[in-house]
Amino acid sequence: MRELFSKVNAVDLAEFISEMDPEDERLVILFRLMPKEFGAEVFAYLDRDAQQRVVQGISDKELRGIMDELFLDDTVDFIEEMPASIVRRVIKLADHETRKQINQLLMYPDDSAGSLMTTEYMEAKTGWSIAQAIASVRSQCEDMEFISTLFVTDGARHLKGSVLLKDLLAASDSDSVASIVNTNINFVSTLTDQAEVADMFKRYDLVTLPVVDGEQRLVGIISIDDIVDVIDEEATEDIYKMAAMEPIEQSYSDAGVFTLARKRIVWLAVLMISSTVTGFIIERFQAALAANVLLVSFIPMLMDTGGNASSQTSASVIRALVLKEVAFRDIFKVIWKEFRVSVIVGAGIAALNFLRVMLFNRNLLVALVVSATLFIVIVVSKIVGCVLPMFAQRIHLDPALMASPMITTIVDAVALLVYFGIASQVFGIAV
Amino acid sequence: MRELFSKVNAVDLAEFISEMDPEDERLVILFRLMPKEFGAEVFAYLDRDAQQRVVQGISDKELRGIMDELFLDDTVDFIEEMPASIVRRVIKLADHETRKQINQLLMYPDDSAGSLMTTEYMEAKTGWSIAQAIASVRSQCEDMEFISTLFVTDGARHLKGSVLLKDLLAASDSDSVASIVNTNINFVSTLTDQAEVADMFKRYDLVTLPVVDGEQRLVGIISIDDIVDVIDEEATEDIYKMAAMEPIEQSYSDAGVFTLARKRIVWLAVLMISSTVTGFIIERFQAALAANVLLVSFIPMLMDTGGNASSQTSASVIRALVLKEVAFRDIFKVIWKEFRVSVIVGAGIAALNFLRVMLFNRNLLVALVVSATLFIVIVVSKIVGCVLPMFAQRIHLDPALMASPMITTIVDAVALLVYFGIASQVFGIAV
């Protein structure tokens, strides 16, 4: 049996089990057959329903066995998903020290460094020799998820620096920890936002980052494999905001229908109401439209193209702001760049449109009016699409969230005003 | 001086130097003052212009010093950015073995596992004892960027498994490497796409991943800190595609005006041409519109809301597909979920619109027609917004790229047809 389990990957097996019918009795039986350590690994990757089913099907002794093998951060993730009855049973079974750590970790706000960190890390004391430190590593390291760095603290547990495991191993036994400690290190507090933590990992190419409390005492570490998920989460949040939705906390498949509806309806309502403006503009030019109904048929195309042109620019600029490739101080550089891009793109699209209108409608005046409008709309859309997100960032609003509805409304209104303005001049229609 | 440099972070200093005027002579002087190892670290983080300036300002001996300290993957990244004259000088200065490795790494296609990997990793042989392995680690590890795992190979360099450094350190000296080797490991080939590599890191919570050639011989490793950049790159690509742009290879600030224009104009042209369809529909209903011009004023709002509703859904579903939260086999589950969401959202928005039209236009029939259209448009938009990306994925097209223009065109056409259909029934207008 051990032989068999050594051939499969815990993640793949967990996925297989998670897809089984939760009522299937073989689920718990299969789980009982696994070697203890492997079982805990599989358990950590199970989905919520399967975890609950396993916990309900096994004895207290078996549950304690799994808890002993689970990494502390996985235990906390699991507890956060479980109903109260199971949480009580798990907490009751945990030993005193683990219980204290679990309760501590459960207290940190979502998306804070405290909620990301684990309290399992390797520590060295300022006074130790290399031999002492290596001996300590060798005795502790088997229980650690991830080792690459030891954190050095003084007697009061204040963070003093770090020692890379590779430097420790390369040093000679008679040296002291103090001789290879790196005192110029990055750290965060338990309340630092996870997006900021992820940015530090990226900026400084970190592998682990120590977390300190209000008194600069080391309380945990965050390792890069937890940051990978944060980076995906942050990108998902930005994508949701750019598509005019509030982000959801869980995955799409876990999110309920009412949650999804709630996250979507707000912006949809705001955008619908703000399009009252375009309605007013059209009503104001009713006479002109009634006199030349052909003009109406280009309204959707002009508004769509303006919307697409501005969202191209705002998506590029918002992403560049998030990745810290540009900042507010670059605003004139960005405007000048987008202006030149928009002139090229606008001229190309306007020329193409001219050919199209001549081909389908054979009306030179209309072709000229629509193409001129298109050119102006594309230039204005691209400028609005870069300026608004940058100003939003400047006044500490989320560029992704703030920009989209305002940009749409402004671009739609500009498109119509320019169109009707040019059209009424050219066709001499009273408005 | 060393004291001073030990207080600043290499990344921060590199940023400061990169922002200096490249003609400023103090740039090279500052660089010469740095301790060798620190200088190499700073060098790796400099931007292209500053790197070029430094290389032009220092002697061959100094350059060789930097090359000796640089990690091989950083050297390759640097060479890829430099003009031919500097590349020749660097290659000439490298020793035979390094030169061979650089040339090898430069050959792998962009975005392949080969181009991500480094050839600096720790190896153990199948027949070794623990003591031998630890001694080997201690002698090699200082030159490594990242150690957490040793890769075990046989005499012909075929990959046989891996040993976690923590297991090695925890084992007793008299054991053999064979007793703690993990033979069930993940690996990729040099030609595996970087998106697939990133997915493996995420799925299996990996820290390093070995890369093998066509004959299963170990040729390098990829470590998780290189994957962090890949994840950001892939998210940026998806954001660009969703905003109807082709992705750019460099960062926004490095991309030239013509590159940006080229990446944007294609989809803008496709979308503009495809909106010919909406123009035709409007022309076909000209008579109805001329008879009731008030109807025209709601066209932009209906199309915008349809577009927003569909992009909310397509953004959610595309992201869920990318993160592997849903797959094609879930299509009926997704449609059923989106249908229920759309009924809730559609009913809410339609009711709000009804109130708005009654308030501003005081026309019951128009309010009913517009609200009914709005409800249907939102439901259809959300279904189209989830079905198309999933089918695109099924037939191995990129959901992000394929979905957007087709969805817009379909949703726009449906909005107009439903609107005019209902309006002509209610108002009894001949079409």
Describe this structure in words.
The structure is a homodimer of 431-residue chains. Chain A is mainly alpha-helical and 431 residues long. Chain A has 3 domains: 106 residues, MgtE N-terminal domain-like (MgtE N-terminal fold, Alpha Horseshoe), CATH 1.25.60; 103 residues, Roll (CBS-domain), CATH 3.10.580.10; 153 residues, SLC41 divalent cation transporters, integral membrane domain (Tetracycline Repressor, domain 2). Helix content of chain A is 66%, strand content 6%. The first copy, chain A, contains 22 helices and 6 strands. In chain A, helix 14 links the parallel strand 4 and strand 5. Chain A is elongated. Chain A starts with a helix and ends with a helix. At the A-B interface, helix 11, helix 12, helix 14, helix 15 and helix 16 of A face helix 11, helix 12, helix 14, helix 15 and helix 16 of B.
Task: Give the topology, please.
Two copies of one chain form a homodimer.
Chain A: H1 2-5, H2 10-18, H3 26-33, H4 36-45, H5 48-57, H6 60-69, H7 72-81, H8 84-93, H9 96-107, H10 113-116, E1 123-125, H11 130-140, E2 149-153, E3 159-164, H12 165-170, H13 177-180, E4 188-189, H14 194-203, E5 208-212, E6 218-223, H15 224-242, H16 257-274, H17 276-284, H18 286-291, H19 299-322, H20 331-360, H21 364-394, H22 399-427
Parallel strand pairs in A: 1-2, 4-5
Antiparallel strand pairs in A: 2-3, 5-6
Helix pairs in contact in A: 2-4, 4-6, 7-9, 14-15, 15-22, 17-22, 19-21, 19-22, 20-21, 21-22
CATH architecture heading of the largest domain in chain A: Orthogonal Bundle
Number of strands of chain A: 6
CATH superfamily of the largest domain in chain A: SLC41 divalent cation transporters, integral membrane domain
How would you classify the quaternary structure? homodimer
Tell me, rounded to a whole number, the average pLDDT of chain A. 87
Percentage of residues in helical conformation of chain A = 55-70%
Q: Class of the largest domain in chain A in CATH?
A: Mainly Alpha
Q: What coarse outline of chain A follows from CA principal-axis ratios?
A: elongated
What separation lies between the terminal Cα atoms of chain A?
A: 85 Å
Fraction in beta strands of chain A = 5-15%
Contiguous uncertain segments of 5+ residues of chain A: none
| Computed CA radius of gyration of chain A, to the nearest angstrom | 30 Å
> Strands across the major sheet of chain A, in which order?
1-2-3
What's the SSE pattern of chain A?
HHHHHHHHHHEHEEHHEHEEHHHHHHHH
Alpha plus pi helix count of chain A = 22
